[in-house]
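User: We ran a pulldown and think these components assemble together. Before we commit to crystallization trials, I'd like a predicted model of the whole complex to look at. Sequences follow.
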Amino acid sequence: MSIQEKVKITQLPTGVPGLDEIVGGGLPEYSFNIIAGEPGSGKTTLAHQFVFANATPERPALYFTVLGESAIKMLRYQQQYTFFDPAKLPGSIRFINLSQVVLENDLGAVLDQITKEVEKANPAVVVVDSFRTMVRKPQSDMDLQSFIQRLALFLASWQATTFLIGEYAEDELRDNPIFTVADGLIWLRQTAERNSIVRKLQIIKLRGQNSVPGLHTFRITNAGVQAFSRTFGLIGHLKDPPSHRRLSFGIPELDKMLDGGIREGDSVLVAGSSGTGKSVLATQFIAEGIRNGEPGIVAVFEERPQAYAERATSLGLDLETPQKDGKLAILYLRPLDLSVDETMHSILDAVTKIGAKRLVIDSLAGFEMALSPGFRADFRESLYRMIFALTGIGVTILSTVEVDESFTEFPFSTYSISFLTDDIIRLRYVSIEGQLRKIMVVIKMRGGNHAKDIREYEITSKGVVILGKRLANYQGLISGLPVRTDRPDSMEEPAQKPGTKSKS
Amino acid sequence: MTATPEMRDFAHRLLTYEGGVGKASEPMDSPTLRVYEKLHQSLSEFVGVAGFLSLATRALALAKREAPSLGAVRITADGALLGLGELEPQMDIDRERPREYPSSEGGVILITRILGLLRLFLGEALTLSLLRNAWPGEVFDDQSSANGRKA
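Assistant: Here's a predicted model for the assembly, 655 residues in total across the polymer chains.
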């Protein structure tokens, strides 16, 4: 059979933001699906979103309710969601209660009733909620497997996309025949982790679809279920060709140390202890980008956007105007039960909206604290995915990280994430001549040649200002307790000039 | 808890409509029974027999407080309404004047109470959407315009 002869499977929108991406573009038309999970995990809401997104007067949805939540209470609560359109009832969406037939008859009669209603309505979508309560008591004349088989065959033949909703436990996956018959199996989980609830969904199977494997976080808001793909919705986004452009900090001496600036698409880590000027440096990086026509995003976790902008003003940097002009977005993300995927969703929305080229995450410690405790365990892995995804679409990321000052070691980060970053700039305090002064050094620059100098700097009303030449007349600067030598403090540029290749 | 004037007005509309649509050649149930039966059928499909029974018995209990004349009225296990005959006897409709069959005050109150419960639980928009399945659009015309929606 040639490619042209293959049947085309129409993909239906799920009506759940983010879920289409996870299921590989949409749910296959005429598929027979299970939505499984514990009570309260969002099964009914998800099914409603699909129904409201796909039902039409010509091809309506039949929503069979069985035992359990009454239809009136279900609709009373479900209509609070923004996707709920009462005008669609009953023309496009019909609720049919099967409690009586389930209680008084066997599964054969239940199938007959469903058959009758389907033949009458010619629905595009059929939902049985909850299927579990329907088959809790298998009848003698038709075993469960036969019932499911006939139901699946009938509904597929009538060109209906079907959802059976049920409260299943994961250990039932092996033995329950319904999971064998189903084309799609969406599993919703919610777990309490310390004081937070973490919701995750998994596409355990979906025939004919290239769904994204793994656990994806989701949230239930007044808009219903919203899913956040582990791939951040970036499937199909091609990486821009490698750029050789250098992005300036707006601090000429620092740009020189960085061989002309940060390479576009890099991930930069600015590490230092409290008060060393990490946020100031980050603000200058964003402001310089805006000056150069590169829109930016600042994700802040430790102060509110207004305070962040006001602090920039005190440095002579205007962050108010670019916000009004749509060139800058300052995102405040601090609900304390975030997942990295949700954060990414907010950032990506902003990237798309303003065409951002630079992103500041200030700080990684604040970011970690904003996450639900369950997600903190995966922080490094999540950061890896996030950085990979964002730099993959050409965004240059500057993250700040606070490190504990030590006089016996010189850590780059408390997260062991230096391998995730292309470039590292380390800031620290040193004790010199009875003063606590600040030094800066470029530790690493992947694919570039950076200066090896240790430079003193100050934070002034103009931001970070690098002073004089490299501190050549001190030894042990990175220990924080340097010893003065007789060597003059006026060495010229290092032997290795910018632009030459590093052997390291 | 009292029924809202809007629900009472809407109950009147349904009862008036049903009071004028019987087959001229046949004895006709009272308007209250006809409205009730339509609600019974359409809502039972939606909420199940047990669901409708719960709603109807609650509505009757509320209505009886307001209208003692409903004292003998009861609802059977399958949701049928009995005992209304004393208040609204079955009538033979005059072929020439089929549109004059007023419902009793008790009947109005009972239907108002059922509609009121639906509105309480589902809201006005969804209640009207569900009732549209059982009655023609003309019954809803004023109600719809009152809500700023098209019939």
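The interface with chain A takes residues 44-51, 55, 121-123, 125-126, 129-130, 132-133, 149 of chain B (CB under 8 Å). That may be worth checking against your pulldown data before setting up trials.

User: Thanks, that helps.
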